[in-house]
Structures are given as structure tokens and as C-alpha cells.
Amino acid sequence: MATELSPARSRLAARLATFLDSDLVWSFRHSPMAMLSAALLAIVAFTSLLAAWLMPQNPFDITQLYLDKANLPPIWVEGGQMPYLLGTDMQGRDILSAIVYGSRISLVIGVASVALSMTIGVFVGLLAGYVGGALDNFLMRIADAVMSIPTLLVAILISALFRGLLPVAYRDAAAPLILVVALALTSWVVYARMIRAATMVEAGKEYVLAARIIKVPRRRIIVRHILPNVLTAALVTATLNLGLAILAEATLSFLGVGMPSAQPSLGTLIRIGNQFFFSGTWWIVLFPALQLTLIILAVNLLGDWLRDALNPKLK
């Protein structure tokens, strides 16, 4: 068994060594901003995944909420109590725990919506760019129609439509899936247009023409030859759009058409805290807003670095 696994392990070790010696890793190691952004996102992801063990409270469990602990200020302000480091809200919910759990929801929805929109956009772009003709015109007119309407308005309409079709008892449980679909259906056009243009360029190159001459199936040409050469640009765009997706989810939740109060994302926490901002409980809205700002800033900085690192014109 060991002899069977050794070649595979050797190939894996060789690929890992090649990756660690690549220009991308070298650029990452020499970019303090990229390393700081990656470290911040890693901390947010780590604490979000292990929230049940790290946080003093589960904000989704009503049995852990105590009204006599409501509206406690942060620990460094007079009246603050342990273990509520950042204070509590009007329901006795620990702000730090709510932020960590809310960050997990925002990250999952953001990553899932970007992955789905990229998948749809890459598929449509490859199909339109390679096949061309009437199919290309039809798909691009759909893309034009989607782009002609403001993104948030389309997301609100899609979210309202799905919520209206579902029974009331299932709306809160299906809220994350609805948000993922709503955000993906409004942002796939960016990937489709970019992949279409790149596919049209690649389709005219000699290696594709040679594959056509020797009767390589169309599906194999698209998947094995064109897709690897156009996917890098889509991945860079996905990284840059992750921050926009998280912000869009927060905006929808802030407007009341996103995550419910029983499963608050960062946008929901900001909406709830904003209602009590002028009553003196400033910490309810301030700390979730800071967390959202840091996440989006880190994602954007990491995306900017990745775009520059993969740009051959800058090398």
C-alpha cells in the first residue's frame, strides 16, 4: 500500500514545492498589505467556524438570552460586565457573539453567491463566446436586460418573489438560500461578458484551430483547452466581487429583506442597532459596522493584490 501511495505523494510534494516557489507566493510574501488582509480574513473565518466553542453565548438560542442583562455597555465602560466584552443588546444578546455568528452568515452567503454567479457567468460566457451567432446575441441581450436594472432592485425583487412563493413557516429557514440566489442572479453578467470576450480571443488561436482540424469534440475544446486559459480572470474578479457581495447582503438585511432578526447577519445587526443609536446604546450598531468594514476592506485589498500579482503586464 505504501509503495502505491508513494508516487502520488511525490507528485503532490513536487506540485507543492513548485507552488511555494512560484511568483504568486513570492509576491504574497513581499506584500505586507496582502499578508495582513489574509491574516485578518483567516481570523474572522477561524472564529466564525469555532464560534460555538469560543463565544460565551449562542445568540440564536433564546434559552441563553437574559433580559436582565439587556443593554449592558462594553466592559471598559462603567456598568459593563463579564463575559460581555462588547456589551449586550436590548434582548440580552452578547454583541461579540452576535458579531462572530453574524460574520459567519455574511461570509457564507457572500462566498456562495460569488461561486454561483461565477459558475453561471463562466458557463454563459463560454457558450456565447465559442458558439456565437444567434445564441450569442440571445444570451447577451439577456445580460443587457439584467444590467439595465439596478442590482439591489433586482435582488430585492427576486428575494420578494421567492419569499412570496414560500409558506411563512419556511421563509426564515430559506432566507440564506434566497439571498444566495438573488445575489447570484444579479451579478453573473460581469463574469459572462468577461469570459465571452476572452473565449472569442482564445477561439481564434492556433491551438484551438488545430483541435478543430483533428475533430476534437466541441465540449472537450471548451473544457480542456479554453476554460483553463480564461479562468484566471474570473477568479480575480470573484475575489474583488466578494466584498461587493458581502456588502450587498448587508444592505438587503439592513433594508429588512435579508436575514431575519432570529438569524442576524452583520447587516441585520446594524439595522437593529440603528434603531437604538440615539438612545445611547451606540455599541449595538458601532461594532457590527466596524466588523463589516474590516471584512470588506480586507477582501478588497486582497483582491487588488491578486489582480496585480496575476497581471503579466506588471511583471
TrEMBL record:
Domain annotation ABC transmembrane type-1: ranges: 103-303
GO terms of biological process kind: transmembrane transport
Subcellular location: Cell membrane
Main location, first listed in the record: membrane
UniProt entry keywords in alphabetical sequence: Cell membrane, Membrane, Transmembrane, Transmembrane helix, Transport
Pfam families tied to this protein: BPD_transp_1, OppC_N
SUPFAM superfamilies (UniProt xref): MetI-like
A cellular component term, taken from the record's GO annotations: plasma membrane
Superkingdom of the organism of origin: Bacteria
Membrane topology designation: Multi-pass membrane protein
Membrane-traversing stretches: 34-55, 105-130, 142-162, 174-191, 226-248, 282-303
Protein family membership: Belongs to the binding-protein-dependent transport system permease family.
Name of the protein described by the UniProt record: ABC transporter permease
Lineage, broadest ranks: Bacteria, Pseudomonadati, Pseudomonadota, Alphaproteobacteria, Hyphomicrobiales
